[in-house]
Design brief:
Helix content: 55-70%
Radius of gyration: 19 Å
Oligomer: single chain
Number of domains: 1
Number of helices: 6
CATH topology: Arc Repressor Mutant, subunit A
CATH superfamily: Winged helix-like DNA-binding domain superfamily/Winged helix DNA-binding domain
Strand order of the largest sheet: 1-2
Structural class: mainly alpha
CATH class: Mainly Alpha
Number of strands: 2
Strand content: 5-15%
Order of helices and strands: HHHHEEHH
Distance between the termini: 32 Å
CATH architecture: Orthogonal Bundle
């Protein structure tokens, strides 16, 4: 009798959830208790002087309505602000507040800490191999989705 196929989806899902929990816990220790982890990628999508919401939505691959909700949540927590666009005063741009800038730095530090923890656990070479396997899985899933 052959062994069942590995459950890659389960592994990816549980690893993603555990990673998110670790990030939130580490950020909480740094004082970012209510950081909306699901919106964290927004911080890296913003241009230096600010970015219009429609542009952010395009970059994130979400609807304008979904982006608006994420921005409002990040505004409530003090990470983002909306200000008039200097190129068109009828429009607004979203930019990071000083708190947003500091949590972005904290996120990068936490990412490095977690990567180091994995490298310490399984070794740097195996961590690199794992990253390569995850990249290959991502590409395989993207290819499968494109076939449909």
């Amino acid at each position: 009798m052959s062994k069942p196929l590995p459950n890659v989806a389960r592994g990816l899902l549980t690893a993603t959830r555990a990673h998110a929990a670790a990030v939130v816990a580490r950020l909480g220790r740094r004082g970012y208790v209510n950081f909306p982890f699901a919106s964290a990628s927004l911080l890296w999508l913003l241009d230096e002087g600010g970015t219009r919401s429609t542009t952010l939505a395009q970059r994130a691959g979400v609807t304008k309505q979904a982006m608006s909700q994420q921005v409002k949540q990040m505004e409530r927590e003090g990470y983002l602000e909306q200000v008039p666009d200097t190129a068109d005063t009828r429009a607004k741009v979203i930019r990071m507040t000083p708190r947003g800038e500091s949590v972005k730095v904290a996120c990068a530090e936490v990412r490095d800490e977690l990567n180091q923890a994995i490298a310490n656990l399984i070794g740097r070479e195996k961590a690199r191999e794992m990253e390569a396997h995850l990249d290959a899985a991502t590409q395989a899933f993207a290819d499968i989705a494109a076939e449909s």
